[in-house]
Amino acid sequence: MHVTMDQEGRFLTLHAEAELRFHAIWLRDNAQDTETRAPGNGQRLIALRDIPDNTRIASVEAGETMVHVTFAPEQKSVAFSVEWLIAHAYDIKARADIGWLSDEISVWDAGLQADVPTAAFPSLSEDGATLAQWVEQVARFGFGKITGGPIQEGALFQVVDFFGFVRETNYGKHFDVRTEVNPTNLAFTGLGLQAHTDNPYRDPVPTVQVLYCLESSAAGGENMVVDGFACVRRLQEETPEYFDVLAQYCARFEYAGEAGVCLTSRRPLIELAPDGELIGVRFNNRSLAAVTDVPFDKMELWYAAYRRLGEIIDDPAMEVVFRLEPGEAFVVDNTRVLHARKAYSGTGTRWLQGCYADKDGLRSTRDALFRSTQEAAE
């Protein structure tokens, strides 16, 4: 491994397994020294305006594990870890495929039925390694199940405490899912529900949902989850123009099922980042409002694509089914994984409590647990 720099000092090249280039201004902005970054929290202490706009590399020296760079005109020397540079390299080939996914994501279908990410409530409470593994699986697969929890109202909040914080909505901090005589939402009936993402009419949507079972003596009512990312990628493989039209144009969603509430949003069914990464799916037939953002000459194509996506979502080959018993719960990434339930009978009881949280808490817990494990191993 060695390092070279261009004649003008605009960038350096790290010659490792691959050649990786780093601009002078990028390196200076990302310096890890105590004058640039706060030692306690790693936050940047300076703004870009504090760095000369004519910053260049005056000299560079490489050791086995560190690269030492001196910047002009400041004449400031900063050391960079080779490992850190490789981990943060941006001189890589851009992804050309639309709908690509991060390596942290694993798509799935009914084949995951025998390997549902599951952990026991007591173990999550007592064993950091179990919690770290379960949170990692939830982040990777978009859902996870918990068994052996307390059978008491509000126990779902203890589930959220494992990884984040409750997000309160017009439904309150939590909501009860059971039959009501005059329901404000079809979720509160015994009807079967098509797989869907929750609350697409919110902006932003709640990114994590928790459902916790307290009673389950009614026949039916099995829970079902479907990987939305797997579904839209299947759609893309079958008919690329279907994928494109659902990603290109916005749908509209609305909920006004109770007094004083009128929630609306305008988002595509398939959400892509500017570089083509697949980052979200919104699908909820109950809450779809009149679509008015698709041009006349594309509307029939949009509806054909919407229909086909629904057919793929309904395909049993895409679903994982499980029954929640009292004291069991599941957590779902509401930006990706659709959930549903089978119809259940009017005899017996079925009572679930649900609440929302946010994915940033889940990811934060995952990353913090990973870093603490690394530090303990060093």
UniProtKB/TrEMBL annotation:
One of its GO terms (molecular function) is dioxygenase activity. Its EC number is 1.14.11.8. InterPro entries: AlphaKG_dependent_hydroxylases (IPR050411), GBBH-like_N (IPR010376), GBBH-like_N_sf (IPR038492), TauD-like_sf (IPR042098), TauD/TfdA-like (IPR003819). Gene3D superfamilies: 3.30.2020.30, Clavaminate synthase-like. Residues 118-356 form the TauD/TfdA-like domain. Signal peptide: none annotated. Its cofactor is L-ascorbate; Fe(2+). Keywords: Dioxygenase, Iron, Metal-binding, Oxidoreductase. It is an enzyme of class 1 (oxidoreductase). Residues 17-85 form the Gamma-butyrobetaine hydroxylase-like N-terminal domain. Pfam families: GBBH-like_N (PF06155), TauD (PF02668). It catalyses: N(6),N(6),N(6)-trimethyl-L-lysine + 2-oxoglutarate + O2 = (3S)-3-hydroxy-N(6),N(6),N(6)-trimethyl-L-lysine + succinate + CO2. Belongs to the gamma-BBH/TMLD family. Converts trimethyllysine (TML) into hydroxytrimethyllysine (HTML). This is trimethyllysine dioxygenase.
